[in-house]
Amino acid sequence: MDALRQMWRYVGDNQAFFVESLRIHLQLSGVALGIAILLCVPLGIWLARRLTLATPVINLVSALRVIPSLAILFLAIPYLGLNRTAAFVALTLLALPPVLINSYAAFRGVPAAVKEAARGMGMNTWQLLWQIELPLALPVVMTGIRTAAVEVISSAALATFIGAGGLGDFIARGFRLSSTPIMLVGAIPIALLALSSELLLGGLQRRLSAHLVR
Amino acid sequence: MSVIVADKVVKQYANAERPAVDGISFTAEEGELIVLLGPSGCGKTTLLKMVNRLYEPTSGQIFVDGTEIHDIPATELRRRIGYVIQATGLFPHMTIAENIATVPKLLKWERSRWSPRVDELLTLMHLPTEYRDRYPVQLSGGEQQRVGIARALAADPKILLMDEPFGAIDAITRAALQKELRDVQQRLKKTILFVTHDVEEALLLADRIMVLRAGRVEQFAPPLEIVLSPANDFVAQLIGADDLFRRLSLLRVDQVQGPYDGTTNGGPTLRPSDSLRHALSTMLSSDRQTLSVVDEQGQPIGVVSYDQLRTATQNA
User: Fold this and answer.
1) Residue A178 lies in a domain
2) Fewer CB atoms inside 10 A, N or C side of chain B?
3) Complex ipTM, two decimals?
C-alpha cells in the first residue's frame, strides 16, 4: 500500500512528464496498430484468394513471431538509429503477424456456399466484399487486432531502451533507482491500457458477431 | 419464344480428360420445369451454372429470353435469374427480410417496394411474416430453404436455377417442399432448371427430364416417356424403368378410367388426378377390385378396375 501511495505522489509531482509519456505510449501503440491494420487486412484478403502463395507467406510471417520484441527493437537501431521511427517500425513488425494471420483465416473461412449465392444473385466483387465477406470475417479479424493491440501496448514499454520514450521510461528509471513506486508508475498504466484495449475490442467483437452465434 | 436456348455448349476444365459438358443443345419453354438428372460428374451442375455464368462455357452459346448471355454484364444477367443452392447460402449476418430483399436491393428498389414484397413471399412460402427480423440460424433447415426459394423469387425473375435445393433436407420436409415447389410453379409459371440425382424427385417435379451422362444428353423427355420407353440401358437402369410401382405412380386415374356404369359400391372413391399407385393402394386397403372415380362435386364420373391397372403397367 505504501508503494502505491508513493507512486501516486510521484505521479502528482511529475504530472506533465507522466501525461507526455502516456501520450507517447498511446501514439506508439496506436500508430503501429493502425499501420498493421491498414497493411495486413487488405493483404489478408488478397492472400485468401491466392492459395498457392498464401502458405509460404503465412509461414514466413508466423516465423517472424518467434523473434522476441526486444530483439526486433534493437535490430531496428542500426538501420533507423536511436529514435521514435525505429520504435514505430519495430512495433509495427510486432503487430503484423496476428492481424495478417487472422485476416487471412477470416476471409478463407467465409463459407463457399454463401459467396456462391451472393455471386449468383448478381453481386459484383465490391458488393460481395463489403456486404458479405467483410461482415462475416470481421469477428475473426477483430481477434487478431485484439492480440496485436495487447502485444503492442505491452511491448511499447521497451521503446524506452532506444530512447523513444513512453511509459517504459518510468520502469527503466525505477529500475535504475531501485524504486518500486516509480516502476509501478509505468507498469500499472501499461497493464491497465492493455487490459482495457482487450475489454473494449472484445466487447466490440461480441457486438459484431452477436447474431452469427445465436 | 423459348426462354432458355442452349446451342452446342461445351465446358472443358483445364487438366480434365474430357469435357464436363460435351456439346449440349436444348431449349426450355416458358413455365416449364426441367430436371437435369444424372450421376455425379455427369455435368448437370456445370450445365446449370453456365446459364448464369458462374461458369463460362468453353464454346457454344446460351440465350436467355432471346439475349446471348455474354451480351449483357454477368451481374445484370444474374439479377434476372433466380438462384437456389443446396446449402441454402443464406447470408448469416442478415435478417430474413434482408436476405429476401437481396436482389431487389441490388436493383435499387425503394424500401417501400421491397418491404411488402418480403411479406408477400414469406406468405407464399408458408412462413410467418414475423420471421422477417430473425436471422437464418434461428430457422430450421427446411425453413431456411423456403427462405432460399423466396429470395430467388424476390425480383420476380422469369427463370429459376435450382442446384439440388432439397439435397440436404430430411425426407419428410423434402416431400413437403417438393409439393410446395409444384404449387408455386403452377401459380407463377416460372421456367425452372432443377438439378438433382434423386430419381423420385425428378419424376415428381419435372415436366421434362434431361438424363445426362459424361457431359452428354442420354434422353430428354417427359417423365412418363422416360420410364415407359427409356432410350437405352443406362437410362432404364438409372430411372428404374422396370419398377411397376414407378410406372403406376406416373400414370393418372383419368388416363385409364372406364365410363361410369351407373353403380356405386359405397367404397372409397378416387379423383381423376390421383396416381394409379394411389388407386392400387386404395384397392388393397379397402379390399375391392373396382373403385368409383368422382369429380370435384363428388359426382361419380367413371370407374377403375384392378384389371385396368394390370393392363396399364404392362403395355402403357
Assistant:
1) yes
2) N
3) 0.78
Q: For residue A100, which amino acid is it? A: L
Evaluate the CA torsion angle A64, A66, A72, A75 in order and state its sign.
Answer: negative
The answer to whether the Cα torsion of A22, A26, A32, A35 is positive or negative is negative
- Of B227, B244, B261, the domain-final residue: B244
Quick one: closest CA in A to B82, which residue? Answer: A121
CB contact under 8 A, B79 and A127: no
Judgement on whether residues B146 and B272 belong to the same structural domain of the protein: no
pLDDT digit string, tens, across residues A136-180: 999 899 999 999 999 999 988 888 888 788 888 899 998 999 888
**Closest residue in chain A to residue B85, using alpha carbons only:** A117
Q: Is residue A213's pLDDT more than 50?
A: no
Domain boundary among B191, B218, B244: B244
**Model confidence pLDDT, tens digit, residues B5-47:** 999 999 999 888 899 999 999 999 999 999 999 988 899 999 9
State phi, psi for B273 to the nearest 5 degrees: -90, -5
Q: Is A113–B86 a contact, with Cβ atoms under 8 angstroms apart?
A: yes
- Looking at beta carbons, which residues of chain A come within 8 Å of B78? 119-122
Report the Cα B269 to chain-centroid distance in Å: 29
Q: Is residue A182 one of the residues assigned to a domain?
A: yes
A113/B137 touch (CB, cutoff 8 Å), yes or no: no
State the smallest CA–CA distance between residue B92 and chain A in angstroms.
Answer: 6
Pick B85's closest partner by Cβ from A117, A124, A135.
Answer: A117
Sheet hosting strand B67-68, strand order edge to edge? B21-28, B4-11, B59-64, B67-68
Whole-model pTM: value is: 0.79
Number of domains in chain A: 1
Q: Which residues of B touch A122 (CB under 8 A)?
A: 74-80, 103, 106
Domain that includes residue B256, residue range: 247-315
Q: Which residue range(s) make up the domain with A112?
A: 2-209
- Is pLDDT above 80 for B305? yes
**How close, in Å, is residue B175 to chain A by CA atoms?**
23
User: Which CATH number belongs to the domain containing residue A78 in this structure?
Assistant: 1.10.3720.10
Residues B67, B9 share a domain? yes
User: Do B257 and B195 share a domain, yes or no?
Assistant: no
Q: Which three cell numbers stand for residue A33?
A: 496498430
**Residues of B in Cβ contact (< 8 Å) with A119:** 54, 78
Compare CB distances from A122 to B79, B88, B90 and report the shortest one's residue.
B79
Ramachandran assignment for B192, one of left (phi > 0), alpha (psi -120 to 50 degrees), beta (any other)? beta
DSSP secondary structure letter of residue B52: T
Tell me the C-alpha distance between B195 and B39, whole Å: 11
Choose between B135 and A68: higher pLDDT: B135
Q: Among A111, A114, A123, whose Cβ lies nearest the Cβ of B106?
A: A123
pLDDT digits (tens, 9 = 90+) for B200-247: 899 889 999 999 999 999 999 999 888 888 899 999 888 887 777 777
Of all residues in chain A, the one with the smallest CA distance to B87 is A113
